[in-house]
């Protein structure tokens, strides 16, 4: 993380002078995988550095968002993110079905996810997004239907429902052995139709 942050700060220092200081930054998004593997202190230092190189807006209308992995974030970290100015959170869920979670090696309870949603709302985040994925190994209409019902009950402000991109040659955490357990094309389409119907 330290080596990555050092390079990111260097890149910001190189790019900052290319932009007019009168141009306000209204949107910041830390994502592309979950960035909360960084400590709150590291994220704070990054945001402080970026604000020195770019003119961050202080408008209440600004959108500063961050992806959060509900499995590895504390109440204190969420409070720190809110203090830094983050006001939108995107939570990765994928699916709550235990068989699917075991297949993708992402064990995550409904309770811990709901606790993070609640903590974001209590600390001033004005929007909470939940990310779901259809077409995962072992995913069924019945199981995904329960996940959708659970997420709908949690009432996130936004939902993102992505198609599973199974590319183990690019993403090492995706085991090749799970290819046999992926839904067939027609079953994957049925999962998407189920999501559209329920939402």
Keywords:
five-stranded parallel sheet; single chain; alpha/beta; 7 helices; 199 residues; two-stranded parallel ribbon
- What structural class do the secondary elements suggest? alpha/beta
The largest sheet has its strands arranged as 2-4-5-6-7
The coarse silhouette is elongated
Number of helices: 7
Radius of gyration, whole Å = 19 Å
Q: Report the average pLDDT across residues.
A: 90
DSSP helix fraction = 40-55%
Low-confidence stretches: none
In short:
The chain is an alpha/beta fold and 199 residues long. The chain is built from 7 helices and 7 strands; from the N terminus they run H-E-E-H-E-E-H-E-H-H-E-H-E-H.
Describe what you observe in this structure:
By secondary structure, this protein is α/β, with parallel strands linked by helices. Helices cover 43% and strands 18% of the residues. Helix 3 links the parallel strand 4 and strand 5 (88-94). The longest helix has 14 residues, at 2-15.
SSE arrangement:
Layout: H1 2-15, E1 24-25, E2 27-30, H2 40-53, E3 55-56, E4 63-68, H3 75-84, E5 88-94, H4 98-104, H5 110-122, E6 127-134, H6 141-154, E7 158-163, H7 185-198
Parallel strand pairs: 1-3, 2-4, 4-5, 5-6, 6-7
Helix pairs in contact: 1-2, 2-3, 6-7
């Amino acid at each position: 993380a330290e080596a990555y942050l050092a390079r990111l700060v260097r890149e910001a220092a190189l790019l900052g002078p290319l932009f007019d200081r009168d141009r306000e930054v209204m949107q910041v998004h830390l994502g592309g995988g979950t960035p909360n593997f960084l400590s709150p202190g590291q994220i704070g230092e990054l945001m402080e550095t970026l604000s020195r190189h770019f003119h961050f807006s202080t408008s209440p209308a600004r959108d500063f968002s961050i992806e959060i992995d509900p499995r590895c974030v504390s109440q204190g970290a969420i409070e720190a993110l809110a203090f830094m100015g983050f006001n939108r959170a995107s939570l990765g869920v994928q699916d709550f079905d235990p068989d699917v979670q075991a297949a993708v090696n992402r064990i995550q309870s409904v309770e811990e996810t709901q606790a993070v949603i609640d903590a974001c709302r209590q600390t001033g985040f004005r929007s909470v997004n939940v990310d779901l994925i259809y077409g995962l190994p072992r995913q069924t209409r019945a199981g995904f239907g329960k996940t959708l019902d659970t997420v709908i009950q949690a009432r996130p402000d936004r939902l993102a429902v992505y198609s599973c991109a199974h590319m183990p040659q690019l993403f090492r955490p995706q085991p090749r052995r799970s290819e046999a357990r992926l839904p067939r094309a027609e079953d994957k389409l049925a999962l998407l139709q189920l999501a559209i119907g329920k939402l």
